[in-house]
Fold:
Amino acid sequence: MLKALFLDMDDTLCDTQVANAGAMTKMGQKLTSLYGEQFDSEGTIQAYLTGIYRQWSEPQRERYMAIIEAEGESAYRVQLIRDLVAAQGQAAPDQATAQSMQDQFDLDRIAGFDFYPGIEAFLAEARKTLTLVVITNGPIFSQHPKVNAVNMKAHVDHILIGGEEPEEKPAPSIFQKALQLAECEAHEAVHFGDSLVTDIGGANATSIPSVWIQHDQVLDLNLGGEPKYTLTHPREIPSLVTQLSQL
Structure:
C-alpha cells in the first residue's frame, strides 16, 4: 500500500526553468548595457547558469570550492560573474557591481519561482492520505529562498535540503532519512524527480520505486538506471498517484 510520496522540487513540483529564464534575460540585458552589443551576453549567462549548478571542470572545482568553503556561496557566485566577464576580454566588474548583479539575479529568479499549474491543489489532496516529503539538492543559499517563495512547509510534511544533510541525492542516506520521517518501508513510497542521476539513481539504489519526469530529456540508462515509471511533464503526476493509490 502506498504511504508516502518523495518529491524533488526543481523541475518536478516547481517550474525552475521559467524562473531561470526570466532572471537570465534580465542579467543578459544588464551585461549588454554595461559592455555593449558586441559582448556575448547569452554565452555568459549560460555559463553562469552552468556554474551555479556546479557543472565544473576539475580546475574550476578546485578554484571555486575553495571560495565556497572559505567565504560562502554568494562570494563564489560573485567571483563567477567576474571571471566570466573577464573571459570575454573585458575588465572584470568591481566587487560591488558583480554583487549587485548576483543579488538582482536571485531576486528576479525568486520572483518567477512557482509551482507548476495544478501542483498546489494536488499536494493538498494527496496530503490527506499520504505523507509528503520534498527531497531537493542544492545549497541552503539557493534552496531556502525557493522553499519560502512557495511556502513549501505549508504544503508538505517534511523537507530535506541536500545542503543541510551529510549527503545529497543520489546518496542512499538522504532517501533513508526520508523513509524514517515518513515511517514507511521502501516499497510503500514512490520518488518523483527529473534527474536520472540524482533522483532515479538514488531511488533505485534504495529500492524505492522511481518516477522520472522526462521533460525533453533522452533516457540514458547509464546515468541512473531505469525508472519504474516515466512521465513527460509534472502535470501527469496527480493521475499516476491516483492509479498507484488504488493498487
Q: What stands out?
A: The chain has eleven helices and six strands.
